[in-house]
Specification:
Number of domains: 2
Order of helices and strands: HHHEEEEHHEEHEH
Number of helices: 7
Structural class: alpha+beta
Number of strands: 7
Helix content: 40-55%
Largest sheet: 3 strands, mixed
Radius of gyration: 49 Å
Distance between the termini: 138 Å
Strand order of the largest sheet: 5-6-7
Low-confidence stretches: 73-101, 103-122
Strand content: 15-25%
């Protein structure tokens, strides 16, 4: 009995709510014209549809802007591709390589030798009036460096050709004046450059050995250093042997581990 009574109550509840919903629907349909008139008078319908139309227009405008930007970028890409196709495939872009400084380790002391300067194309021959220093031995046995005026013809750097002329030795006129050179025979200048007031003169092995002993080493260095410092851009000279900085020339020679000035050699 209890279960049947509960089942009847549930059925009655469902029927009741269905009846309420139908009643509300009948009332809504019956008053639909009135509801529509109220919505139109308050402008609710226009506001809702106007907002929806505005959203649609904004979306269409954004799509159009995106397509326009894509069309503007596309010709630029086409131009780049067209330039690539017209380029000569056999011609490569020039690559400039910068040689790093050379590091030399000697007697637990690290010495950095700056790299050689960039080689320039040779131009037409030019001339320069310069001064070379040769050696005169005085009557009392003193070794003196004496200047000689010389016209140098050069195509690249004037310092290189000036040092090569010095290594070549005195000419006939100089020999008649009892001038000589104590730069060791077979000496060759491998390279010459100037950086921050220092001339880096790179010689071969022959420059290391002088049969005249200490006086010979001093004389050859005086010739080189005084000739190089005639140039206004040169304050001191760093001697290199095959690209390396050595401390001494010969076994008991002269210290050349730093840039030398004419005063360094005259004070000895």
């Amino acid at each position: 009995m209890g279960k049947e009574r509960s089942r009847k109550k549930s059925s009655f509840g469902v029927v009741f709510w269905i009846a309420v919903i139908l009643l509300i629907a009948i009332i809504f349909l019956f008053n639909l014209p009135v509801i529509r008139e109220v919505l139109e008078n308050t402008g609710f319908v226009e506001v809702v549809f106007e907002e929806r139309d505005r959203d649609t227009q904004d979306s269409e405008r954004e799509d159009n802007d995106t397509e326009t930007a894509a069309e503007e970028v596309r010709p630029q890409v086409d131009d780049i591709q067209r330039d690539d196709t017209t380029a000569d495939p056999d011609v490569e872009d020039p690559i400039v390589e910068i040689e790093p400084p050379e590091t030399i380790e000697e007697d637990d002391q690290e010495i950095v030798v700056p790299p050689p300067e960039e080689t320039q194309e040779e131009g037409p021959d030019r001339t320069r009036r310069t001064t070379l220093f040769f050696i005169r031995v005085s009557d009392d046995g003193r070794v003196l460096a004496e200047p000689v005026q010389r016209t140098i013809r050069f195509t690249g750097g004037p310092l290189t050709h000036t040092m090569e002329a010095l290594i070549s030795g005195p000419n006939a006129e100089d020999l008649n004046k009892s001038l000589l050179s104590l730069i060791p025979p077979d000496t060759e200048l491998l390279s010459a450059r100037v950086s921050d007031g220092i001339a880096y003169l790179n010689f071969n092995e022959a420059f290391r050995f002088n049969t005249m002993g200490l006086e010979g080493y001093l004389a050859q260095l005086q010739q080189v250093v005084q000739t190089a410092t005639v140039f206004s851009t040169v304050d001191a000279v760093q001697i290199l042997i095959n690209g390396q900085v050595l401390e001494y020339l010969g076994g008991d020679g002269v210290y050349v581990g730093k840039p030398l000035t004419p005063g360094d050699l005259r004070s000895r």
